[in-house]
Amino acid sequence: MTRRDFLGGLAAASSASAATRPNVLFISVDDMNDWVGCLGGYPGIHTPNIDRLAKRGVLFSDAHCAAPLCNPSRTALLTGQAPWRTGIYGNDTYWKPNLPDAVTLPMHFRANGYHVAGAGKVFHHVAGFNPPDQWDDFQLQVFDDPWYRRDEWYPWNKKIPAPKGHPFNGLDKFQGEFDWGVIPGRAESEYGDMRAVEYGEKFLGKSHAKPFFLAIGLWHPHIPMFAPQNYFDLYPPEKVRIPEVPSDDLADIPATGQKLAAFRRPEHERIVREGKWRDAVRAYLAAISFADKMVGQVISALDQSVHARNTVIVFWSDNGWHLGEKQHWHKSTLWQRSTHIPMIFAGPSTKAAGRARTQPVTLLDIYPTLIDLCGLPKRDGLDGTSLAPLLRDAGRQWKPAVSTFEPGNHAVISEKWRYIRYRDGGEELYDRKADRHEYTNLASDSKLAPVKQEMARWLPKSSAPPKPDRDEWDFDFASYQFRRRTSR
Ligand SMILES: [Ca+2]
Predict the structure, then answer these.
(1) What SS3 state is found at 353?
(2) What DSSP letter does each residue of 291-316 carry, written as one string?
(3) 150-171, pLDDT tens digit by residue?
(4) What are 222-271's pLDDT values in tens digits?
(5) Ligand 1 centre from 5 Cα, in Å?
(6) Residue 223 Cα to ligand 1 middle (Å)
(7) How many domains does the chain divide into?
(8) Ligand 1 centre from 113 Cα, in Å?
(9) How remote is the CA of residue 30 from the centroid of ligand 1, in Å?
């Protein structure tokens, strides 16, 4: 297939009737940063399946989340609306009762003649975030650590006693979910994400009367970083490289940045103190490679199916991950480590398109792009921009990307610069070409004032106040009803 075929495909899709529209295979991973072969974040990482997908499709090599945290990132992607518009900024804010009129990505496909199904973590994984009315069929997340999950948050979860030897990372009374290692006696096929993979394989193995939108949401490499031994064996401990963290890296960062970096500082300090840094990095590498294996398994099920030639694949991660950079673990910062993510569009007709797009884009762009690729009716009020022009023309000029963490804190990301402005006025400016690790904050360099001014043009002009948190609602899982608590 040539690129012209792909463009022809695009044109055909927009005039297609529902019956001939392409299917969508929507595959996500959780907390996967740019430590992926095709993104070069960790040379030596073993991600053959994602790399192969990037080669046969279009890798967006400078893609960023709309918010560097699970729920706000996923809510933004799936509603098509940015956090600064919806007020959904945190993991404790239900989107459904707060945005009762939102037409999500699966709903839009469903309303336009698609069979819409999914499994695993697509919306945020806690009860109340994945309403059953979104799907014709959905299989909820199966957790690798069911012994850790609080009953009221995961009512479908079958709790089992913690296995002997837990926690496997050897850190007693560490943050409960932040464990890593090999679950003793558990075969690869018995890990929780494999239930989502299996769901995908079964679904793709069947013929379907309508075009489909199939979402397979993998938990990996999110903590707990559990994987079978052979994925750890890919990374001999003595060869694992821990991130370089200059001791004065935080010295030029304003107060809010300091605060975000300090949020999980006790975890960082304990990991370093107990000599576990290399171990934890190794576990992340193993968890990424295990995720890659599962992504490959789903794609191979598609390739072997009757749907192989008529299915658009989109692959994405909801946010990045720190492994000690800026003395921080997890996400929830506005630096490259938290916002940069893998994102790939592929499909049989993108084969010859092959070349990475280096323009900054965001997960918000997926919704309007899929509308274009599948010829669905356009929707007003989407904050992203269709990437179809970039799929047509790799050299096209593009605007900067914006990522938001909590009200009023944004990163504006152009090909050359990252400009961060916090609600309190604190600023950071990094030269992304010269300073890949964002060690040197140039915001106070008066010669760069015009750069800051240009970047600031892209800042959202307003920020919706945060919507009420989960504890403001009574939620009933069986009926999936929300009732606002009377104000106290
Ligand atoms: Ca996440």
Answers:
(1) helix
(2) HHHHHHHHHHHHHTSTTGGGEEEEEE
(3) 889 999 999 999 999 999 999 9
(4) 999 999 999 999 999 999 999 999 999 999 999 999 999 999 999 999 99
(5) 35
(6) 9
(7) 1
(8) 30
(9) 5
Please list all protein residues whose beta carbon sits less than 5 angstroms from ligand 1, which is an ion.
Answer: 30-31, 70, 318-319
DSSP H or E stretch at residue 281: helix 277-303
Q: What is the domain range of residue 152? A: 3-400
Structure pTM? Answer: 0.95
3-class secondary-structure state, position 386: coil
Residues designated as active site: 70, 124
Q: Ligand 1 center to residue 318 CA distance, Å? A: 5
The whole-angstrom separation of Cα 56 and Cα 353 is 8
* Domain membership flag for residue 410: no
CATH for 316: 3.40.720.10
Is residue 466 one of the residues assigned to a domain? no
CA distance 228 to 187: 7
